[in-house]
Each structure stands twice: as structure tokens, then as C-alpha cells.
Here is the input.
Amino acid sequence: MHLFESLDAILLAALVLLVLARKLNVPYPTLLAAAGLGFALLPFAPSIAVEPHLVLALFIAPALLHAAYNTSPRALRRYWFPLLSLAVFAVLVTTATVALVGVTLGGLPLAAAFALGAIVAPPDAAASEAVLGEVGIPRRGLLLLQGESLLNDATALLLFGLASAFATHSDTPVTPLTLAAAVPGGIVFGALAAWVYLRIAPLFAGTLGSSIADFAVTFGIWLLAERLYISSVLAVVTFGMILSQRRPIGQPARDRLQSAAVWSAAILVLNILAFMLMGLQARDVLTHLPAAERWPAIGFAAAILATVLVTRIVWVFFIRLVEGAIAARYAPAWLPKPPPWNASVVLSWSGMRGLLTLATAFALPQSVPGRDLIVLAAFGVVIGTLVLQGLTLGPMIRRLSLGDDTGLADQIAPARKRLIEAGLAVLPAREGEAADALRFRYGAAGKVTVEADDPQATSEFDELHLEMIACQRVTLHAMRDSGEIAEDVYRRLQEELDWSEVDARSFGDNVLTAT
Here is the structure.
């Protein structure tokens, strides 16, 4: 009962912090990090032990699926060079530099130092997006952060699993053959799981089981991939990206809206719990350390934080120089135009750590040498980046004057016009009050309803409206598949059609019930 009361108090406090974060224009993870430490100092704060394998499945699997579902495959292909440099090579470089500091300053064994590097290497886009979405930067920056967050999670978790296995001398078979099979095996398994799920998902359509099935299947894919010794990360990522491209075609609008709300709330709750656990574990680590070792441990955490910050800044500007040199000399079609230098400054400072770093720190086996020092350093990087970068990123963007990006609005306006034209194409052969009302609504952009005392006309209006929406969906999918519109434009317009469909179906159902 004490644990339940503590969890309820945590969630209530998080609600207050979310409101406060909006008022102060501060990323909510920054306040959650501070609240996690504050919660650990309370006398009634419980001591919670977390099982390593459970942590990765519980926290990382749903977070990866949510990120994969909202990532644009077209953007990944378009910006493959900067994404490869950030999501793969930057993680490798950061892991190596942190490992070097861990060995030289912390006295960690090499495998344990590499585990620390893999834990703190991947940034989390959620905190950066909380700032960037409010201030506004070019869409390229947001797309890069979203793609980087997804792909660097996969890179870091692969490194983490490998380093942990060597650090603990695990019985898990780690051979060149198993490593070579883990990546393609995870991708193939995720694709097969998506193929199967897309065929059984309609069985749950229109029920609460739809959202439950999403979570159950995601956890199942992660756990089964671990049993098969293949990459559970790539399995979930592949599953989520295929689902995002194929599932909207047949998924009911109400299910899609409900699923988006459920997943967003679930990811928020996982973040809240992770930051609270961070505070509790940091308290336990400092309590267990001898008094003479506490300040050296805190100093080591500060050194790791500085290493992480400097490495990202140097790497981002190095890649910008490489992009500029290649573009100036060869101007290849495969390389997008390099961003301006002020945008590179923002990107280099958008490296806040979050849920993945916390979850991998929790999941580090107890038998890893220097575990307490590694966990404390990881928490220090999370808190340090969220405070230093989270509180300064917004003012930095305003001072750099990146300029307004109208790309999203420029694409949405003509795409919305195309959808209206596609819907109106249904009406020429139709007569009657319902057809006239829909022509006026879409043609004159007015809000017209049929007389409420004519249930038959109202029902006809909604049926015809649903037919128009179906035609608009066909056009929308075609524009997305042909590359005419970007993924964020597609999702915005899809949500508009979903709400229109839910409105039409709900009102039509009420009319039929009343009659």
C-alpha cells in the first residue's frame, strides 16, 4: 500500500510539473529530473529494486515503437548522410571517448567503461522537441532529431548489450556469427511480425482490445527476439515503421485517435516513473559509497558530462565541415544542402539525454565492475544535459534568429485543397439537401448543418460525408506514397480526416438510435 501511495503522489506531482513546465517554457523532462532527485530526499520515499531485463522490456520497447511509428522513412532516406553521422558514428565516437575517460579517470575495466559510453551516448529527442516545438526551427532540424533519436537508440543498445556481456562474462553466446546474425535477424523478425499483425489487427478493430494488442505484441516481439538472440531493438523498430506505413490504410479512425492518445499517455507515465527511479537509485548509490569516495565519484560524473557535451559539439561541426566541403566541390545529388552554421550550433546543443540512458543504467547487471560509479555518472549526464541544455536551448535559438520555416504550412495548404477537390468529386451526380449542404461546407468553407428535425436527411448527410472522406483518404495516401507530401503533413491531414469521420459516424449513429 505504501508503494501505491507513493506512485499516486508521484503522478499527481508530475501533473503539477507539466503545468509549470508549460508556464515557464521549460522542457518537462528538466523539471522531472529535478523532481526525481527531490522525491528521493523525502523521508517516506521507498526503496525500489528493478530487475534489469524487465527494465529494458518495460521502458524501451514501447518508447522505441512510439518513436518508430512517428518517424518518416522518406526523411531517413533523404537525410541519410547527416543521420548516419549522428546516429551511428557520433554514438561510436562518444562511446569511445567516454570509455577512455572511464578507464583513465574512473579506473573502470575496458568493457565496463564501454558499457558506460553506450549508456550515455544516445540523445533523447523528446526533451529537445519540447523546446524546439515551442520556439520553432526549420523542419530539417526536427526531422534530424527524430531520426537520430530512433537510430541512435538501436546503435547504443547493440553496443550496450555487447559491452555488458563482456563485462559480466555472460553465458549468452557472443560470437562473431551471433553478432552478424543479430542485425539482419532482428530486421527480418520485425518485418514478419508486422506482416502477421497487420492481418490479425482487424479482428480487434472498434474495440478496446486494439490498444491492448499494440502493447502486448510490442512486448512479445521484444521478449521473443531476446530469446532468439537477435536484435530486439531492430525488431521493434522495423515492426513499428512498417506498421506506420501500412496500418493507416485499413485502421478505423476512432481506433487511430484512441491509440495515439493511449500511447502518448503511456510514454509520459514511463518517463515519470523512470525519473523517479533515477532519484531513488542515485540516493542508494551515494548512500552505499564510503564518504571519502562520494566527491570523487561526483567529480567523475562531471567529467563524463563534459566529455559528452564537448564530443557532440566537435562532431557536429566536423560533419558540417565535411558536408560543406563535399557540397562545394562535387555538389552530389545524394547530399542535401548543408544547414547554415547557426542551425549547426542548435543541433550541437540539442543533445539532452533521457529515457534510454536511464533505462540502460537501470538495466546494467549488478555484477558489472564499478556499477555504482557507472550508474551515478549516467544519472549525472541526464541531469546535467537536461538542466544546462534544456534551460539554455530556447534562449539560444531566439538569439541566433534562425528565421521562420513555412515549409509545413506551404505543403499543407495545397494538399488540403487537393483533398477538398477529391471530396467534392463525389457530389456532382448527387442531389438533395445533404449534397447541397456538403457542397456549401467544402466549397464556401462554411459550417452548415442539415435541419435537426429531419433525421433521414441528417443520416444521408453523414453517409455522403463518409463517402467523401473515403475518397479523400485515397488521395491522401497517394500523395504520401508518391512523395508529394512529407510524413508530418500526411499525419496532420490524416488526423483532420479522422476527426471528421468520427464526427460523422457518431452523429449518424445517434440519429439511427433516436429513430
About this structure: Confidence is low (pLDDT under 50) at residues 444-458, 508-515. The longest helix spans residues 291-329. The CA atoms of residues 350 and 397 lie 11 Å apart.
